[in-house]
Amino acid sequence: xxxxxxxxxxxxxxxxxxxxxxxxxxxxxxxxxxxxxxxxxxxxxxxxxxxxxxxxxxxxxxxxxxxxxxxxxxxxxxxxxxxxxxxxxxxxxxxxxxxxxxxxxxxxxxxxxxxxxxxxxxxxxxxxxxxxxxxxxxxxxxxxxxxxxxxxxxxxxxxxxxxxxxxxxxxxxxxxxxxxxxxxxxxxxxxxxxxxxxxxxxxxxxxxxxxxxxxxxxxxxxxxxxxxxxxxxxxxxxxxxxxxxxxxxxxxxxxxxxxxxxxxxxxxxxxxxxxxxxxxxxxxxxxxxxxxxxxxxxxxxxxxxxxxxxxxxxxxxx
Length: 318
Ligand code: AVJ
What we know:
- By secondary structure, the chain is of the alpha/beta class.
- The protein has 2 domains: 4-52 and 200-280, no CATH class; 54-194 and 282-316, Vaccinia Virus protein VP39 (Rossmann fold, 3-Layer(aba) Sandwich).
- It has 10 helices and 13 strands.
- The strands form 3 sheets. It has a 7-stranded mixed β-sheet with strand order 4-3-2-5-6-13-12, with helices on both faces.
- The longest helix is centred in the first third of the chain and has 21 residues, at 4-24.
- The chain is globular.
- It starts with a helix and ends with a strand.
- The mean pLDDT is 94.
- Bound molecules: N,N,N-trimethyl-histidine.
- The site of N,N,N-trimethyl-histidine has 11 residues, from β11.
- N,N,N-trimethyl-histidine binds at residues 47, 55, 158-160, 162-163, 203, 210, 277, 279.
- One of its GO terms (biological process) is methylation.
């Protein structure tokens, strides 16, 4: 196991490498996990409260409305393992519905978000063991030994799975199945396919919070990698790619310009873009197919009345 300091150092090196490689290739792209520094996580929290951003409130509504059903399917004496826990706000709903919960393992790349959430949860649920793991949930994760024999309920809300491509998503579901064990289950929130007139504003809101979230990546590059990006010379762009079934987020150059990062020059033509995020949208049948391709059973799906969002319980066949 790495120490937190080592994990942070790895994340830092990784950022430099990914940014230099990402700005060098065509089309340019930088992995979306780098959007979540302290400021990025704060802006994302703000996004979740926006009128146009339907996923968070819809998923919370589903978790609240179906908490008893979910608890019944989860059973007693389980540990929740959350992939990308952020503020753990949604988990709080689950924890409250699962009085026989053994432990809560929160995995996130933001050490700040983890410690803030852990303090709050330990206060609200004094009997609950809260275990935090700083790291990328896509990497191999070591769960504490004492949880080896505890049944595990994975929790992957927020349609974070939408950031991955379809094959990567299946890969994640397989890795999660192995981590959660032969008697494990996975509760996963997945955003549904819908009209562009709802999707585009959700990723390009009228208050400009999503724009600030996306452009904050440039601020982070300036601060951590000695970048010279002038934020006024770049724009946030969100488009729906119907063929790929996903929202695509870009940072687009407003003019011809040159920028340096770690002393290396990069020239941008006007209109040239850096791809910073994908957010895939699925039909329930796609979710079932992906789950089954990864060896899970798609046991149950809960959907809101407007068919905006789904919460899915994946179980093991045996
Ligand atoms: C955290 C990946 C689920 O795709 O809706 C929101 C990220 N980006 N607005 C999403 C996001 C811009 C969000 N996920």
